[in-house]
Design goal:
Elements lengths: L2 H17 L3 E2 L11 E2 L3 E4 L8 E3 L3 E10 L9 E6 L4 E6 L3 E9 L5 E11 L11 H4 L1 E6 L5 E5 L4 E4 L11 E2 L15 E5 L2 E5 L5 E5 L2 E6 L12 E7 L6 E9 L3 E9 L5 E9 L7 E9 L2 E8 L9 E9 L1
Antiparallel strand pairs: 1-3, 2-9, 3-5, 4-21, 5-24, 6-7, 7-8, 8-9, 10-11, 11-12, 12-13, 14-15, 15-16, 16-17, 18-19, 19-20, 20-21, 22-23, 23-24
Length: 324
């Protein structure tokens, strides 16, 4: 497609999305110390104009929403999410915030909104809030077998455990992570609980299985890091319906060709066929997070986009149902 037509299609998709009414998300009214309620409006979104979304026969779209945020909202730059149960989720931002909320589903089980959004700052090992972007660039998270929250960071690459996600101002403790010289801004984007520990996928390549004693290579990183202009893993979660994982991949080629896709990853690191692919003029943005939960005879998948606190981007949450 010629650039002029691509831009026109993208503009049309945004205009159509903007026609849907945004309504305030129900505000959190809890009183957990250290947590602050966050306001947002929620706008329903579909898959966009025909021709941009490819779903295989075993996957169906199950609803989507856009979070419409004020400029100073702490909910910008959400970079991953995981489910605590069927409805409650936890997320992180690459500015160093921990976010919690609840999914809203209609009677048919389709995603229609979120509520009870709240946030708190992540902390340093001495218990003080993170204030430096280089310390707070959180990119991934998972819940371990004991329900403790683990968060991966880039720039200063590390993996820290923060204890239960409802804890306040927890002092993080280091966890084993790959002994790799990750590029500055291409670190542990995909992390997930795994049998006996956790799995790590580097954005520029490589997969490792880790436990308290250390990490072992599943897929060696390539000699040349995978470029951002090619598909790279930006999120990962354990498959509740099997022994593998689900991953979301992103590709960006300037000026406007951004794409995302969903695939399974086998226990040995092999990637399966593409099950969902999103590109313009479909509903697509900078998808970096994925969460998987058992639902009926299949798996419900949620993917989340990071808007980079950029007015030209959107915070999108899309749901898909995949059969076993």
């Amino acid at each position: 497609m010629r650039l002029s037509r691509l831009i026109a299609a993208a503009t049309a998709a945004l205009v159509l999305a903007g026609c849907a009414t945004a309504v305030p998300a129900p505000v959190w009214t809890g009183s957990n110390a250290g947590w602050t309620a966050a306001e947002a409006e929620v706008r329903p979104v579909g898959l966009g104009l025909p021709g941009g979304a490819m779903l295989t026969g075993e996957v169906r779209f199950a609803g989507g929403v856009q979070l419409v945020l004020e400029d100073d909202s702490p909910l910008h730059s959400l970079s991953d999410l995981k489910l605590i149960d069927d409805d409650d989720f936890v997320s992180v931002t690459d500015a160093g915030d921990l976010v919690r909320g609840r999914l809203r589903l209609d009677r048919a089980g389709r995603l229609t909104g979120v509520d009870s959004l709240r946030w708190r700052r992540l902390t340093l090992p001495d218990g003080t809030p993170i204030v430096d972007k280089a310390d707070g660039d959180a990119e991934g998270l998972f819940l371990d077998a004991d329900g403790a929250l683990a968060v991966s960071f880039e720039r200063r690459h590390r993996l820290w455990s923060y204890g239960p996600p409802g804890a306040t101002a927890a002092r993080p403790t280091p966890m084993a992570s790959p002994e790799v010289d990750f590029p500055l801004n291409d670190g542990m984007e995909g992390i997930s609980a795994a049998p006996g520990g956790w799995r790590v996928a580097g954005e520029s390549g490589g997969v490792w299985d880790c436990a308290a004693r250390g990490c072992q290579v599943v897929t060696a990183p390539p000699a040349e890091p995978v470029a951002d202009s090619e598909y790279r893993i930006t999120g990962m979660d354990r498959d509740p319906g099997g022994d593998g994982f689900w991953v979301v991949e992103r590709r960006f080629r300037p000026p406007v060709d951004v794409r995302a896709r969903i695939r399974r990853m086998a226990a040995d690191g092999t990637l399966g066929p593409v099950l969902v692919e999103l590109s313009l003029p479909s509903t697509v943005d900078n998808f970096e997070g994925i969460a998987a939960v058992r639902r009926g005879d299949g798996v419900r998948l949620y993917i989340l986009s990071d808007d980079n606190n950029n007015a030209a981007q959107r915070t999108l949450l899309l749901a898909f149902d995949a059969r076993d």
